[in-house]
Amino acid sequence: MYKLYTRANTGGFVVEAALALAGVPFDQIDVPKSASPDQAFLDISPLNQVPVLILPDGSSMTESAAICILLAERHPEAGLAPTASSSARADFLRWMTFMSSVIYPADLRFYYAHRYTADPSGMDAVKEAAVAEMDRGFAILDAALEGRDWLVGDRLSLADVYLVMLVAWHPEIEKVPSAWPNIERLWAGLREHQVMRKLNASHDMWPA
């Protein structure tokens, strides 16, 4: 059985969604935010971050995008991602990596600006640059969604869930409908998805 270490309103959201969509049982451990975690948690998460997924063989895995890709591979019957032989597989890997390497780090720079400068007076500039990077990334994704129901392939995938998780973290969320109408269209549909509604109740990612 899987074991998921997570916390509300974190990257654990998309991993919980993956497990729920796959219909596989898992134990959930809610980890309080702490600057001084116990060594046992640091052994499985050296950066003191969630989510951490303990695999059935007892090994641990971090990085939400990588966890999602692995779960999609291990549970192909759930259709969490295009198959390896599908022409859409390349886009799935591309966009999952793009979102995790461009937009997710920008979120971190905005919400944890103090980690990214040695000058306390420079935090506002770090945040401003972070929002600009988010906006640049979302504009690219919005263009990719033009004329499409889903980011990759012809059905819901974890790339779509990952995208709406990230857009829900935007500090100026009210501008999403006008700035990125294709992302808003995708997000509006997923806000009504049974699994997303259930997870949002515990994560409080967006207004119900």
TrEMBL record:
<dbReference type="InterPro" id="IPR010987">
    <property type="entry name" value="Glutathione-S-Trfase_C-like"/>
</dbReference>
<dbReference type="InterPro" id="IPR036282">
    <property type="entry name" value="Glutathione-S-Trfase_C_sf"/>
</dbReference>
<dbReference type="Pfam" id="PF00043">
    <property type="entry name" value="GST_C"/>
</dbReference>
<dbReference type="GO" id="GO:0016740">
    <property type="term" value="F:transferase activity"/>
</dbReference>
<feature type="domain" description="GST C-terminal">
    <location>
        <begin position="85"/>
        <end position="208"/>
    </location>
</feature>
<dbReference type="Pfam" id="PF13417">
    <property type="entry name" value="GST_N_3"/>
</dbReference>
<dbReference type="InterPro" id="IPR004045">
    <property type="entry name" value="Glutathione_S-Trfase_N"/>
</dbReference>
<feature type="domain" description="GST N-terminal">
    <location>
        <begin position="1"/>
        <end position="79"/>
    </location>
</feature>
<keyword id="KW-0808">Transferase</keyword>
<protein>
    <submittedName>
        <fullName>Glutathione S-transferase</fullName>
    </submittedName>
</protein>
<dbReference type="InterPro" id="IPR036249">
    <property type="entry name" value="Thioredoxin-like_sf"/>
</dbReference>
<dbReference type="InterPro" id="IPR004046">
    <property type="entry name" value="GST_C"/>
</dbReference>
<dbReference type="InterPro" id="IPR040079">
    <property type="entry name" value="Glutathione_S-Trfase"/>
</dbReference>
